[in-house]
Amino acid sequence: GERRLVRDLDTLSIDQRLEYVTPLDSDSFDELVQDVAKDVLVYFYASKDCQACLEHAIFVNRCAERFAELKIGSIVVTRFDMSKYALPVWIQQVDALPALIIFPAFDKDPPFRRFVGQKWKVQYIMWWAQQHASIKFHLPELPHLDELERQAYHEQKAQMDADRGRLERETLSTKDEL
């Protein structure tokens, strides 16, 4: 079937890993994050000396890509490099990196909702964003997968189910022979 070219992650910089994520700086932060027409996810990271930031970036990037593919325009996925810029005064200290915080359209005040206690996986981040967004939106059953990936997933699942059924029948048949 049709396949997508996947780049070697080891060769990608953090900026390349975040290619679909809107960059913020000290000047643009307030304007975009305070936009009451948008739910804004901000990925706080350090481009220098933060291995976890590098590893988690691909999940945030894929979220931004999938929200765009799903045409969910009410949510914006952004990034703020704390090794380059100072936090705005109104933001409480971001004490650990990486951090993912949502600023819902209709509730930009503290306490801020931080993505914690869950796996850094695309679908979990998307479900979390859906739960905390002011502007409600629908996600498909497997929001992290595009149509091509969803087809492959269902084919693999059907094959696994068939293999499991065959093994169960063979096991029962072997027990009957004993």
UniProtKB/TrEMBL annotation:
One Pfam family here: Thioredoxin
InterPro entries reported for this sequence: Thioredoxin-like_sf, Thioredoxin_dom-contain_11, Thioredoxin_domain
Residue stretches making up the Thioredoxin domain: 22-106
Ranges for region Disordered: 158-178
Protein's recorded name: Thioredoxin domain-containing protein
Species whose genome carries this gene: Vitrella brassicaformis
